[in-house]
Amino acid sequence: MGRPTTRMTNESLIARIQASLELVEEHRAPACDLADSIRGNGRALEAMPYALIKEIESIAMDLDIAQWHDDDEFSPELGPILIRVRGWLSKLPRDV
User: Fewer CB within 10 Å, N or C, the chain?
Assistant: First the structure.
């Protein structure tokens, strides 16, 4: 008998990212938590087109920068980045 595998589905990985996004939108978590979620869960997604893979680090870095400058008067707007995250999420492969 083989060992059982605990493979996460794309749906469950995407749900984790969405949960992190909602926490940031509700101001209950910092942007860097969402960046970490996108990096960790995004890299585990299967059947990802290259363009979506490239966006993982770009979006995560934008979130990190927004977090670093959170108290700075010249901080980038977090809203547009969160809209970009939602757009990226809508393109992810779900049933693999």
Answer: N
Is there a domain that residue 5 lies in? no
Q: How far apart are CA 27 and CA 25, in angstroms?
A: 5
Three-state DSSP state, 69: coil
Residue 73, SS3 per DSSP: coil
**Direct distance between the N- and C-terminal alpha carbons of the chain, in angstroms, rounded to an integer:** 25
DSSP 11-39: HHHHHHHHHHHHHHHTTSS-HHHHHHHHH
Token pair in block for residue 44: 């585990």
What's the structural domain count of the chain? 1
* Amino acid residing at 23: L
Q: What is the pLDDT of residues 18-32, one digit of tens each?
A: 999 999 999 999 999
* 36: CB partners within 8 A, 6+ apart: 20, 60
Q: What angle do CA 12, 18, 20 make, to 5 degrees?
A: 110
Does 40 reside within a domain? yes
